[in-house]
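COURSE: Structural Biology Practicum
ASSIGNMENT: Worksheet 4, Part C
STUDENT ID: 0417
INSTRUCTIONS: Below are two proteins. For each, the amino acid sequence is given first, followed by its structure token string. Answer the questions at the end about the second protein only.

PROTEIN I
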Amino acid sequence: MDKIAEQMEGYSGADITNVCRDASLMAMRRRIEGLTPERYETCQKDEMHMPTTMEDFETALTKVSKSVSAADLEKYENG
């Protein structure tokens, strides 16, 4: 968690939410990969749970950019 937090330095709360959502969806996509639509539809909810990995977070971080600039952060910190 500390490594992920360091990599998200300067990300807004909404940015962090997007990273987490994308990372968790990657885990689910791995689970359903290769399933037929019929098999996917019959999966139980507990079958769909897949742990989110560090790799999922690192991949999500490459897709989600910071929406807050350094100038915005400085403005906020200086009041």
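PROTEIN II
(use this one for the questions)
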Amino acid sequence: MLHIPSTSGLRAFEAACRYLSFNQAAEELGVTPGAVSRQIQSLEHYLGKTLFHRHHKKVELTAVGRQYLSEVTVPLEKLSAASVRLRSETLRNALSICTYPTFAINWLIPRWANLYEKYPEIDIQLITSLNPADYERDDFDLSIQVLAEGTTVKGMQIDKLLDVDTYPVCSPKIAEQIKHPADLQNVVLLHENPRPTDWPRWLHMAGLDSIDSSKGLQFESANMVQHAAINGLGVAIGIDALVQEDIKAGRLVKPFDIVRRSGFPFHIVSTTRKASRPKLVAIREWMLEAAKQPV
């Protein structure tokens, strides 16, 4: 017998983890914040554990919540991928794009209207995953992946899309406390588990090896880290292409001019078997052109 909680509770939990906000999770799921809260309370009741600390206007994962997220993320992604494969039987004409959630939210979706205006005849199926697309398992048309500069793979077409330029970002209130890079010693550092070297490498570049790069709070995704920074929990390492909208809107501040360029840019990846298809060529060229445009 399988012991599986309500899928609505799991969806609400996963969305709330990404945003660290019941309000934003509710917006994504198309329900009210109260509904998200009730779904998560029901999940907590089922598990007999508290998953979130509730604060005024923000939430924070408990240690149990972080552990539960790490354990359910992969199964949920596999369930999503299996469902996508079955649904694709009725969406054979749709072009499937797999990308990281943060890249989709902060780079691709803000440009989606322009894409649809240019290619209204191309139906697109957008799938997000914290892990790179697995072309041996999944039959995606295109994916966005972080790969080493100059990577080549037999049977794959790989095009560099965007450099990964990294630097600290924080809320305007936190920015008032850090006038110089050395002031980072006195604030909470926010870490993204999939990118554990961002802080130590930036601090080394800034000549701040004396600061403990491991201190602070750990999060499962870039999206969670970014929202934690927006909500004033500490200072995160942002990727320029993914934080520009928040900086422009005043939700985040870039307190220092020191920028580190990673050797692992974002790339567009597709199989050579599909790469020359007109729809893929059109979307790939649109992405490469969009990457050249200012925010």
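ANSWER KEY EXCERPT:
Q1: The first helix runs from residue 7 to 19.
Q2: The mean pLDDT is 90.
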